[in-house]
Amino acid sequence: MISFDKIEVVNRLNKDFVYETLLNYGVHYDKTWIYDKIHHEINQFCSAHSLQQVYIDMFDQIDETMKEAIQRDCTRYAPGIEIISVRVTKPNIPVSIRRNFELMEEERTKALIAIERQKVAEKEAETQKKIALSEAEKNALVSKILMQQMLTEKDSSKRQQQIDNEMFLARERALADANYYRITKEAEANKLKLTPEYLELRFIESIANNTKIFFGEKIPNIIMDQRLIRNHLDSV
């Protein structure tokens, strides 16, 4: 057996239905449609549900269930009565049973705490995993950027070396062309210089530069005929 210390029913009688309600049910209309009715509905509710449901699982629904049940019959048989609210106190149960419920609640609370701890641990593990994954992705991205930078630097160095080689080859080619051009022009100039008059002049200058003075009893005789020299050069 369980008992409820107190059940409060807040109600109101519509002034338009006062005469009809008092005529049909008297001044103690609330005893018929509220006081006796609430006892009946509580008994019906407890009969249809287990102690676990009444005391714990569905206790938060009793107020609204009682309000709807009383208002339903009042609306049908005494329409002037309006049920505003119903408040039911926690039922009294035997001490041994209450202790069992308390132990069960403690165990349920421990289980819920364990579940929540497990969820927290899983969440932390998931967070750590995401952090590690993010760190790995960041390191991979940094490595990729560094590798790309190294490749770019090597490519730039290779390109610079190639440009330097091309500049060196171009400079050497230009020097070779200039030297060839100089030699060619000198050869052409020398070719233009090799005229009979120029050769004769050079011959005379050579003879003049090699003039020797002899002293003694016998002096060599030298006969120079420029025409003979010119003929000899022409034949050569």
UniProtKB/TrEMBL annotation:
<keyword id="KW-0735">Signal-anchor</keyword>
<dbReference type="GO" id="GO:0005789">
    <property type="term" value="C:endoplasmic reticulum membrane"/>
</dbReference>
<keyword id="KW-1133">Transmembrane helix</keyword>
<dbReference type="Pfam" id="PF01145">
    <property type="entry name" value="Band_7"/>
</dbReference>
<keyword id="KW-0256">Endoplasmic reticulum</keyword>
<dbReference type="InterPro" id="IPR001107">
    <property type="entry name" value="Band_7"/>
</dbReference>
<dbReference type="InterPro" id="IPR033294">
    <property type="entry name" value="Erlin1/2"/>
</dbReference>
<feature type="domain" description="Band 7">
    <location>
        <begin position="9"/>
        <end position="125"/>
    </location>
</feature>
<keyword id="KW-0472">Membrane</keyword>
<keyword id="KW-0325">Glycoprotein</keyword>
<keyword id="KW-0449">Lipoprotein</keyword>
<dbReference type="GO" id="GO:0031625">
    <property type="term" value="F:ubiquitin protein ligase binding"/>
</dbReference>
<dbReference type="InterPro" id="IPR036013">
    <property type="entry name" value="Band_7/SPFH_dom_sf"/>
</dbReference>
<protein>
    <recommendedName>
        <fullName>Band 7 domain-containing protein</fullName>
    </recommendedName>
</protein>
<keyword id="KW-0812">Transmembrane</keyword>
<dbReference type="GO" id="GO:0032933">
    <property type="term" value="P:SREBP signaling pathway"/>
</dbReference>
<comment type="similarity">
    <text>Belongs to the band 7/mec-2 family.</text>
</comment>
<dbReference type="GO" id="GO:0015485">
    <property type="term" value="F:cholesterol binding"/>
</dbReference>
